[in-house]
């Protein structure tokens, strides 16, 4: 069983993703031995690229989201007692009790 009387606050962090602000297309691609010219669709991507650039700058400029997990509900423990090779009992800090029987045990027949 592990239980600590001292409580150290835990901090969670969700970092903002780093996105690219440009779309780079090659002049052509080869698929199954056939070349496709991509220059005609590059003009169509200008609007998409401008939007992607704006979204990337907006998201990437945000600071990381931090939050504290400093409360007693984050503390837990589990005590396991092995009765024999087939049965064990586990007791949790919140009052939970689990009786576990090994798969294939004679007790399950």
TrEMBL record:
<protein>
    <submittedName>
        <fullName>Ovate family protein 9</fullName>
    </submittedName>
</protein>
<feature type="domain" description="Plastid lipid-associated protein/fibrillin conserved">
    <location>
        <begin position="12"/>
        <end position="100"/>
    </location>
</feature>
<keyword id="KW-0809">Transit peptide</keyword>
<dbReference type="Pfam" id="PF04755">
    <property type="entry name" value="PAP_fibrillin"/>
</dbReference>
<dbReference type="GO" id="GO:0009536">
    <property type="term" value="C:plastid"/>
</dbReference>
<comment type="similarity">
    <text>Belongs to the PAP/fibrillin family.</text>
</comment>
<keyword id="KW-0934">Plastid</keyword>
<dbReference type="InterPro" id="IPR039633">
    <property type="entry name" value="PAP"/>
</dbReference>
<dbReference type="InterPro" id="IPR006843">
    <property type="entry name" value="PAP/fibrillin_dom"/>
</dbReference>
